[in-house]
Amino acid sequence: MCKNQVFGSALILAGGKGTRIGYDKKNLMLNGSSVMAGLVKRFRSIFDEIIVSSNNEFECENVTVLRDELGSGPLAGIYQGLRRCNSEYLYVIACDMPFVSPDYIAFIKNKVEGGGHCDACVARNGAFLEPFNALWRKSCIGPVRDALESGVYKVLPVLKKLRLCVVMPEEVKQFSGAGSPFFNINYDADLKDAERALKT
After folding, report:
1. CA gap 18, 81 in Å, rounded
2. CA distance 104 to 94
3. pLDDT tens, residue by residue, 85-126
4. In this structure, how many other beta carbons lie within 10 angstroms of the beta carbon of residue 113?
5. Which of 47, 94, 145, 174 falls 20 to 30 Å from 105 in CA-CA distance?
6. Contact 81, 11 (CB under 8 A)
7. pTM, whole model, 2 decimals?
8. Is 40 strand, coil or helix?
């Protein structure tokens, strides 16, 4: 995949404490390999800029690490990423989502370009919207900042106030390889499911 097929900046959200799985998710290992390192490696061939949102120490060559400065949680990380990124759109993913699809990233880029003006491109999963594995535009900075300053730290209430390009479930299916691009690891059982998916 060529760099000009996607956007210039990617944000990996890695600020969670991993309380459900019992350790920092930056340390997730899948079949003997670091999930976090795998994301960074893949993104180097796609994006010109990689940003990691983490309040804990993280060092990686040519990766910008940002700490929360306003609020907390994923929304605070998205805010910092939007403020600091060098591109109009910021691709956002969580560090516990191992099945990232470069083709899906290119697909949502094309959807944004062909769908008129929107603030974010997200997928629908049943009744819910997926805020990660998504594109967020710089125009989101104001609404995100307003939410954080009001003590609203959840992502979905902010999405409801934005102009969205929505990817429907039937569109996502074509990009499910070893696993869904929206699969995330919260528990040991999820990790075992991911290991099985990679073996099939």
Report:
1. 21
2. 15
3. 999 999 999 999 999 899 999 999 988 887 668 999 999 987
4. 11
5. 145
6. yes
7. 0.91
8. helix
Which residue did the predictor score with more confidence, 47 or 56? Answer: 47
> CA torsion sign, 186 to 54 to 92 to 100?
negative
Three-state DSSP state, 125 = strand
Distance between CA atoms of residues 200 and 95, nearest Å: 23
Asked if 49 and 86 touch (Cβ cutoff 8 Å), the reply is yes
Report whether 9 contacts 85 (CB < 8 A).
yes
Q: What is the C-alpha separation between 182 and 173, in angstroms, rounded? A: 11
Longest dimension (CA), the chain: 46
User: How far lies 112's CA from each of 90, 106, 136, 155, in Å?
Assistant: 12, 10, 10, 20
The Cα-based distances of 143 to 52, 123, 137 in angstroms read 21, 20, 11
Q: Which domains can be identified in the chain, with CATH numbers? A: 3-199 (3.90.550.10)
CA separation for the pair 64, 74 (Å, rounded):
17
**Which residue in this structure is represented by tokens 């919207």?**
129
pLDDT digits (tens, 9 = 90+) for 123-150: 998 788 999 999 999 999 999 999 999 9
Task: Give the torsion sign (CA, 184, 186, 187, 191).
Answer: positive
Cβ(161)–Cβ(140) below 8 Å:
no
Nearest to 12 by CA among 25, 23, 31: 25
